[in-house]
Design goal:
By secondary structure, this protein is α/β, with parallel strands linked by helices. It folds into two domains: 184 residues, Metallo-beta-lactamase, Chain A (4-Layer Sandwich), CATH 3.60.15; 124 residues, Rossmann fold. The strands form three sheets. It has a seven-stranded mixed sheet. Helix 1 links the parallel strand 5 and strand 6. It is globular, with a radius of gyration of 21 Å.
Amino acid sequence: MRQPPIELHRGELRVAGSALHLDAQRRATCAFVSHAHGDHIGRHDRTIATPATLALMNHRLGEPKRARKAEQLPVGYRQPFGLGALTLELFSAGHVLGSAQLRVTLEDGRTLGYSGDLCTDTPCAAAPAEVMGCDVLVLESTFGMPRYVFPPKEETLAAIRRFCDDALSDGVTPVLHGYALGKAQEILAFLAGAGYACRCHPTVHAINRIYEAHGVALPGVRPLDAEGVAAGEVVVVPQQLAWSPAMRAVRRRRTAALTGWAIDGDRMFRGVDAAFPLSDHCDYPSLLRYARATGAGRVFTVHGHADQLAAALCRQGIRAEPLREGSQLELL
């Protein structure tokens, strides 16, 4: 039996037989970074990512405390390039601005696809996901259980809009909790595009500027400041900053959490008035559909509910297994 072309090495994903790591958090000689969320980035000797991901990553990591040699390789979607004996190509992942999947063509011609965090719904503030055909697929499994079936995105957005309208008509400020990178821009792009006046926490505003520099329109969105919030404005803030100094002026508020985990019920979110399942990940049916669409003959599931998703794929006739440290598995 041959080793698969992907392996877990000290807890990090790596293309087998190479120095190429995937979304490594520890320093690596060479790493592909799929997007700039904190659990996917690190300081590496050589970093491969889209220009937007590099800009967001540099903003989030800041200047290193110690100067060291590091190289950043910005790569656009659908621009194949060589890396030693490998050929790499990036595909949009639909997750956040700049998010990418990676397809690696091995020396023998077979292709390995890595989805990274993936969302096949049409995003408001990022490029839509592409189907990445491949022989072997490494598939993220965050919502890889049958109970995670999201309602149509249009319904969720309409429900969020009704929540905001009801709060405003009652004379209170609607405050929406969302991650500073990705979820915040997604809802701001939707609301601003619908004509709402929006404010956001300064940490969100700093990321908004990077989004705007990469062509994402966020018209009329302003940062929170000392003047407070005017009547009719909607506020977007990361949940952990909901009671930070910048939010002190927002006294009469009605709050909602925006997250796919809202499927587990409002009781999971203390201190909010509502929770809406707005996610930048695939739900369970979307993961199954995507795995089939790639045409992959072998699927390795990683992160989240990897065991459950692999079992479901097997029931559909796809050879699938959660990737584990030190696995010795037949490739095809």
